[in-house]
Automatic annotation (TrEMBL):
UniProt key word Membrane: yes
KW Amino-acid biosynthesis (keyword) present: no
Protein name (Swiss-Prot/TrEMBL): Na+/H+ antiporter subunit E
Transmembrane segments: 12-33, 39-59
Family: Belongs to the CPA3 antiporters (TC 2.A.63) subunit E family.
Keywords carried by this UniProt record: Cell membrane, Membrane, Transmembrane, Transmembrane helix
Principal cellular location given in the protein's record: membrane
Pfam (any one): MNHE
Length: 181
């Protein structure tokens, strides 16, 4: 009986530690986003505590979200550049209706088997110009695309490679790789 209590205590300690770490991280993010303005501390406190609690509930400690330092350093500039490019692309298309639109729902089959990485890709594919992750089913992500199937699939593949690097995962070799054919 004592061991069960010790395990429960260890889990609650990990939960508290995870909550505190996320609370600090979300507080720093809040301060960064508001420029350090503490004019509305109650709104900030509510947002930060809610975000930390929700993140602990949705992504418990040890859920697989482990980013490598080198992968993070390589992913952040890619993320920022693609976010700017994607925003610029959509703004340009809104201001210039003559630009081509190829709306369609594109199926993209993942090479990665890690579910956490797949979720991350589905959530972030919208930073690519003209794309938005619409649905994830098993090993397939459905991407709403304004730029056509080929561009959406190429962008999703590049994102998958970058996320594999971010998470420190190996991508499986494509079929026929190394055969010299």
């Amino acid at each position: 009986m004592r061991r069960a209590g010790e395990r429960a205590s260890g889990r609650s300690g990990g939960l508290v530690r995870s909550f505190v770490v996320r609370l600090v991280a979300f507080s720093a993010l809040w301060l960064l986003l508001t420029g350090g303005d503490l004019g509305t501390p109650y709104v900030g406190a509510l947002a930060v505590v809610s975000a930390a609690a929700l993140s602990v509930y949705l992504l418990p400690a040890g859920s697989g979200w482990r980013w490598t330092p080198g992968g993070t350093l390589r992913f952040v500039p890619f993320f920022l550049w693609q976010s700017l490019s994607g925003g610029f692309d959509i703004a340009l298309r809104a201001l210039r209706p003559s630009l081509p639109l190829e709306p369609e729902l594109v199926e993209y089959r993942f090479s990665l088997t890690d579910r956490t990485a797949r979720l991350f890709i589905t959530g972030t594919v919208g930073l690519l110009p003209g794309t938005l992750g619409a649905r994830l089913e098993g090993d397939t992500m459905y991407v709403h695309s304004l730029v056509g199937e080929r561009a959406a699939a190429e962008g999703a593949k590049e994102l998958e490679v970058r996320v594999a690097d971010l998470f420190g995962l190996d991508l499986p070799e494509p079929d026929g790789a190394g055969s010299g054919a």
